[in-house]
Amino acid sequence: MSINIVVAMAGLEVHHSSHQQFEPMSTSCKADEIFSTPSYSHLADREFLVTEESTNHNGSTELLRKGFMEYGCQHYRRRCRIRAPCCNEIFDCRHCHNEAMNNINVDQKLRHDIPRHEVNQVICSLCGTEQKVQQVCVNCGVCMGEYFCESCKLFDDDTSKKQYHCDGCGICRIGGCDNFFHCNKCRCCYSMLLKNSHPCVEGAMHHDCPVCCEVIHYNFPVAERKIN
Fold first, then answer.
1. Does the pTM of the predicted model rise above 0.85?
2. What DSSP designation does 111 have?
3. CB neighbours of 193 closer than 8 A, spacing ≥ 6?
4. What's a Gene Ontology MF term here (predicted)?
5. Is residue 113 one of the residues assigned to a domain?
6. 13 located within any domain
7. Domain boundary residue among 64, 94, 115?
């Protein structure tokens, strides 16, 4: 965003240019990060600009939050749907896709999971515009997910989960990044309570559980929490 302002004072023109860029990468969609009031040395000028900017700011905030927590599925509250790159079908989320395409009624040869990191098209739930993966709709301007991770293609309006992306694990997790640490040897995240006491084993959580036969890396409830 570029804001150019010219203030005439005693025949003197003061030019101010403020540039800001919004980069939606594993963050919450906050209007404060997109529209901020520029700092000026003259109080009178600043008061005028604050009033003008506040009008735009409030309007933009209202637009960004339109439909907040009103859309989504049983897995996520979000304001967009995804187009699966594997079968070109539209689903509310990757879990909805996997449940539908691995259903017992689906031909076994056609069953498959979505390659989630390959998702590159989303459909805005409010205006129906299909577009590249991004946090704010290019057509109606709503924030399609209060939490957004470009790497995981994850959108979620329910930020009470305290989502965060772990580069070491390569996925997003819940519980707050301050409450977990990533062990490079075990190659997974553990609770901070286990930081100096967990048994460190190479790739410890990248094996199948002997009980449920699922990969522990995605399903271990105590050491780590997973959302996508």
1. no
2. -
3. none
4. zinc ion binding
5. no
6. yes
7. 64
Tokens of 141: 């301007």
Here the tokens at position 49 are: 């600009």
Residue 48 belongs to a domain: yes
3-class SS string, 30-75: CHHHHCCCCCCCCHHHHHHHHHHHHHHHHHHHHHHCCCCCCCECCC
**Structure confidence by residue, pLDDT tens digits, 115-164:** 999 999 999 999 999 999 999 999 999 999 999 999 999 999 999 999 99
Positive or negative, the CA dihedral 111, 115, 118, 119 is positive
How far CA 20 is from CA of 37, 121, 222, in Å, comes to: 11, 26, 41
The residue out of 12, 45, 64 marking a domain boundary is: 64
**Mean pLDDT score across all residues of the chain:** 76
User: Strand pairing of 121-124 and 2-9?
Assistant: unpaired
> At which residue do the structure tokens 């689906």 appear?
106
- Show the domain range for 30: 2-64
> 142 phi and psi, to 5 degrees?
-85, 155
| CA dist list (Å): 50 to 8, 45, 173 | 18, 9, 38
Q: Could you tell me how many residues make up the chain?
A: 228
State how far the Cα of 184 lies from the Cα of 168, in Å rounded to an integer. 7
Quick check: 25 pLDDT over 50? Answer: no
Which residues are bridge partners to 208 per DSSP?
A: 215
Would you say residue 89 lies in a domain? no
